[in-house]
Specification:
Mean pLDDT: 83
Number of domains: 2
Largest sheet: none
Strand content: under 5%
Helix content: over 70%
Structural class: mainly alpha
CATH superfamily of the largest domain: MFS general substrate transporter like domains
CATH architecture of the largest domain: Up-down Bundle
Number of strands: 0
Shape: globular
Low-confidence stretches: none
CATH class of the largest domain: Mainly Alpha
Order of helices and strands: HHHHHHHHHHHHHHHHHH
Oligomer: single chain
Distance between the termini: 23 Å
């Protein structure tokens, strides 16, 4: 790895670390936010999903923006905006203010992920690219898992507001590093599909609103029925528009690439399961097991350690032997780990009931994330690296968004032991499905 490649990889990790950390650090803060601001499970879902709605909808636009204006410029915009939105979250005086600020975080977070991954693809090739992606996914996965640990420590010692203030530190570090990065040449062949962005955002917002609020009002209530109808209609219109506009934000022709198409289908199932898991486990051990926030964060620390050591190695192995085996076995192992949580009772003995499954979860996740990312992007041309990575990340975030919004349909209006068991079965089935899709559909690259 050259000095410049090392710099690019560090910048990409720091930039995306912000979005992945914030996507999970808030989970451990949800009970504390509920205690101070009120609102119950619906508020907890909204604080999580307001971020994911804008992140998932606009990450596609951000992929095009990184190609149009250059990755360095978009990264700087995203980092500064994300920091400002985080400060507003910390200063929120009521639930609506916090939810709006979380949505703004998603807007600027959308600028970071595709640009950081596109940087890696622009500076690395072949096996080095696969290993770099493995390192990137390992660290971003660690950010997603370490979030509850950091959040728990801050909540127990300071306040839930501190989980947003902490974003200032990586912001300063990333801006200091990125000034040393050469300015890249923007593409002249890409434009912004604003109509597609509006349709996608409207569709996701209406659908997610209906899924979250329906336990309170019921499906037949106009406050639920019409937002759901408008949301689904907007999503259908979005796909119709993307097929007809000359420069779409979601280039549907990318899905003619076999591994890109199958890999994103697997992504949908796998990340839906993972998102439900991290959301549900952290809330469950606090509200049912009465774990302090920091201890709740510690419950998933083994996953962080496993991913730190194994994710880059599995990325390198996937680059050498192909991703199919790892993409099939990883979700399967994680699903078996989740099923072991069915032994959990109201006492929640961590060492005998949770830790074995968490260790399997960490191993399965380490086997999955880097090979999955490499498989999805392996056949994408470098000039479409930004939009290709954006599509995959958008699908992952939207899958998690819809899964979290649907939790009420699975567990009811509050987190209970029975509801937790129902959630465990649901997320295990999603992971099994992702492994089966990968085993059947993913093609390893031809050996030379």
């Amino acid at each position: 790895m050259t000095k410049q490649q090392r710099l690019v990889l560090i910048i990409a990790i720091f930039a995306s670390f912000l979005t992945f950390l914030d996507g999970s650090v808030v989970n451990v803060a949800l009970p504390a936010i509920d205690n101070e601001l009120g609102g119950g499970l619906a508020t907890q879902q909204w604080v999580s999903d307001a971020y994911l709605v804008t992140l998932g909808a606009l990450i596609l636009v951000a992929g095009a923006l990184s190609d149009v204006f250059g990755r360095k410029r978009i990264l700087i915009w995203g980092i500064i905006g994300f920091c400002v939105a985080s400060i507003v979250c910390a200063a929120a005086i009521n639930t609506p203010m916090l939810i709006i600020a979380r949505a703004l975080q998603g807007v600027f977070g959308a600028l970071l992920v595709p640009s950081s991954l596109a940087l890696i693809i622009s500076y690395f090739n072949g096996g080095a690219e696969a290993k770099a992606i493995g390192t990137w996914t390992g660290w971003t996965g660690i950010a997603y898992i370490i979030g509850p640990l950091v959040g728990g420590l801050l909540i127990d010692t300071l306040s839930w507001r501190a989980v947003f203030v902490i974003n200032i530190i990586p912001t300063i570090v990333t801006l200091w590093l990125i000034r040393r990065l050469p300015t890249d040449v923007p593409s002249r062949h890409t434009s912004i599909d604003w109509i597609g962005a509006v349709l996608c955002t409207t569709g996701l917002a209406g659908t997610v609103y209906a899924l979250i609020e329906q336990p309170k009002f019921g499906w037949n209530d106009p406050l639920i029925f019409w937002p759901l109808v408008c949301g689904i209609t907007a999503l259908i219109a979005f796909l119709w528009w993307e097929r007809r506009t000359p420069k779409p934000m979601l280039p549907l022709e990318l899905f003619k690439i076999h591994n890109f198409s199958i890999g994103n289908l697997a992504t949908t199932s796998i990340y839906a399961g993972l998102s439900v898991a991290t959301f549900l486990i952290i809330i469950f051990v606090q509200q049912v097991g009465h774990y302090p926030a920091f201890v709740a964060g510690l419950t998933v620390l083994p996953v962080t350690i496993i991913m730190f050591f194994l994710s880059p190695r599995f990325g390198a192995l996937a680059g050498r032997f192909g991703p199919r085996f790892f993409m099939a076995m990883g979700p399967t192992i994680a699903a078996v780990g989740f099923l072991s949580f069915l032994r959990v009772d109201s006492e929640i003995n961590y060492w005998t009931q949770l830790l074995p499954g968490i260790l399997l979860f960490g191993l399965g996740l380490s086997m999955t994330v880097a090979p999955l990312t490499a498989a999805v992007l392996s056949d994408i041309s470098k000039q479409h690296a930004g939009i290709g990575s954006a599509v995959n990340n958008a699908i992952a975030r939207i899958a998690g968004l819809v899964a979290i919004a649907s939790i009420g349909l699975i567990i009811g209006s509050s987190v209970t032991l029975d509801g937790f068991h129902h959630g465990v079965v649901a997320m295990s089935l999603l992971l099994f499905a992702g492994g089966i899709i990968s085993a059947i559909g993913i093609r390893n690259p031809a050996t030379k």
